[in-house]
Amino acid sequence: MFRYMIAKCISAHEGVQYAHMKRTGHLEVIAGPMYCGKTEELIRQVKRASIGKKKVQVYKHAIDTRYGKGKNVYSHAGLSFKSHVITEASEILKKLHKNTEIVAIDEAQWFGQDLIPVVNELLDKKIRVMVAGLAMTYERQPFAPMPTLMAMADKTTKLSAICSVCGEEAVFHKRIVKTTIHNPLEADPALVGRTDAYEARCRHCFDKP
Ligand code: ADP
Ligand code: TMP
Ligand code: MG
Ligand code: ZN
Fold first, then answer.
1. How many C-beta atoms lie closer than 10 Å to residue 29's C-beta?
2. Which listed residue (28, 41, 107, 199) is catalytic?
3. 20 to 30 A from 57, CA-CA: which of 50, 90, 173, 209?
């Protein structure tokens, strides 16, 4: 009897959560430094949703030409999923299908603050939104619009990578090559795709060369 009551409570609780998600949309943010597994986690979630026959649309920024210029999001370890390649946040709404239930956005940091109203509009449409992006710049400053999205989110997953100097958990990444672009909020097209341009670093090793 007790077990039955517990089960009833759990399923009622899940029902409430589900009803909430259905009614208001749901925002999940996956943040962290380079190599921490943001794209892997995004792909894992959209693959699970596809298994559940959910209508999913994935978007990535056109700057991300790593591992080819194809219409896929790619992780560093070679996982991929088909996506729309866009340059501005507003294109997410323009390309949105009428019956889409889940929108996943990778490399959110390159869309800037314009992404915020777009995400809000998707949430108003009762869509489940998943956003992955760099939490910090290579100079260890918060990387807009991620801090705002993390604050708005129903769920935030903060991942860490492995420090390439000492092997401990790394919450930062460091630019280790010289570049002509000095604004840390701006992508350097010359460096995108170069896996030797940035390294995951822990707090202790960040200042090491
Ligand atoms: P992100 O999108 O956060 O940059 P990905 O999801 O594309 O990361 O790739 C994560 C994968 O990168 C890991 O599973 C691992 O195979 C690989 N990898 C390479 N360098 C590192 C590192 N320093 N720390 C952790 N994973 C790394
Ligand atoms: P990642 O988080 O999936 O590794 O992707 C980050 C991408 O952004 C990668 O292509 C390298 C690029 N990048 C820049 O162009 N400028 C930067 O300052 C940083 C940190 C990354
Ligand atoms: Mg990634
Ligand atoms: Zn370290």
1. 27
2. 107
3. 173
Ligand nearest to the CA of 198: 2
Closest-CA residue, ligand 2 atom 10, reads 192
**Structural domains of the chain sorted by starting position, each given as residue range(s) with its CATH number in brackets:** 25-160 (3.40.50.300)
User: How many whole angstroms separate alpha carbon 109 and alpha carbon 149?
Assistant: 10
* pLDDT one-digit tens code per residue, 95-116: 999 999 999 999 999 999 999 9
The C-alpha atoms of residue 20 and residue 35 are separated, in whole angstroms, by 33
Q: Which of 2-11, 59-68, 94-103 has the lowest mean pLDDT?
A: 2-11
Q: What is the atom index within ligand 2 of the atom nearest the CA of 186?
A: 16
Report how far ligand 2's centroid is from the alpha carbon of 191 (Å). 8
pTM value is 0.88
- Residue 41 CA, chain-centre distance (Å), reads 8
- Asked whether 77 lines ligand 1 (CB < 6 A), one says yes
